[in-house]
Amino acid sequence: QILDQWFESEPLKATLATDAVIGSMASPYTPGSGYVLLHHVMGELEGQRGAWGYVAGGMGALSQAIACAAASMGAHIFAEKAVCHVLLGRDGQAQGIALQDGTEVRSKLVLSNASPQITFLELVPQEQLPKDFVKQIQQADTRSPVTKINVAVDRLPNFLAAPNACNGQPLPHHQCSIHLNCEGTHLLHQAFTEASHGHPSSRPMIELCIPSVLDPGLAPRGCHVVSLFTQYTPSVLAGGQSWDEQARNAYANTVFDCIEDYAPGFKASVIGRDILTPPDLESIFGLPGGNIFHGGMSLDQLYFTRPAPFYSGYRSPIPGLYLCGSGAHPGGGVMGAAGRNAAQVALEDFRHL
Predict the structure, then answer these.
(1) How is the chain split into domains, by residue range?
(2) Which CATH superfamily is 76-141+293-351 part of?
(3) Chain segment 24-58, per-residue pLDDT in tens
(4) Distance (Å, whole) CA 254 – CA 260
(5) Please, which pLDDT band fits residue 187 given cuts at 50, 70 and 90?
């Protein structure tokens, strides 16, 4: 409805609508999806409103930059050290964390960037939490429609709509997000409907990026890495079928067939691929249900209800334990707002200890 008020071109509306459903098990026709679009364009990059950018060196470089900044201020970082549980004192106050190798790290405050589900259902004893709070965390919508496919290719994709230059140099569209299967919002709705019945979309929504065009160090000379953000794939398949190797490859083949229609020769250029379905995203990265936002971005799970009513201020039912990740207000996205806000609340409490 919002897009119809401002635009007439269906391909343009559908392309913009992808940011209204990205990461969400929702259709462009789902009430409230307009907020997800707002969420993706409300920020700015180097003074340009609504802009996004690539991180030089890949997204891991952003984590490294944050780590270096923290270390320069005296932080100690324990990488590859799984947390077993939050340490609690006799008064129920958070006193640090215990690692799975038995190491205990004592602290006056604990901030968790893990999802609300991991933080409160796995790292904290249930008897220490209000029953209503536990129930709200358990019932949160964490469905994910996302399957991420990372691809290595030996040449640039050559799209029918804008053929490559004779010299093989990247063109402007190679430096942007390329949206496929987005000629109309009805296609997005159709893809959503299939997934809502437990079937991977037969014509999935595809957002294709080629970061190596702007950051050549990501791939050998002449080769490229292609990032495919695709929807819709249900976390749980119909009939209890599992996301086994056959199902994963069948869906990836569907995605590649679609790309081939727009850029003939794409499949022949592929030299490697990595397929991450919702269960893969959950098991590898700890994302509940594979949800990249730590939980749905529907209006009933935003603002004062994120992660649960009365707990949107970053403090948790456990004194000294704070939630600072995407499961907290204002939700997902690479912006750091939740972490900054949580740090301010934690510092305020720390001054009163």
Answers:
(1) 76-141+293-351, 145-285
(2) FAD/NAD(P)-binding domain (3.50.50.60)
(3) 999 999 998 988 888 888 878 888 888 888 888 88
(4) 10
(5) very high
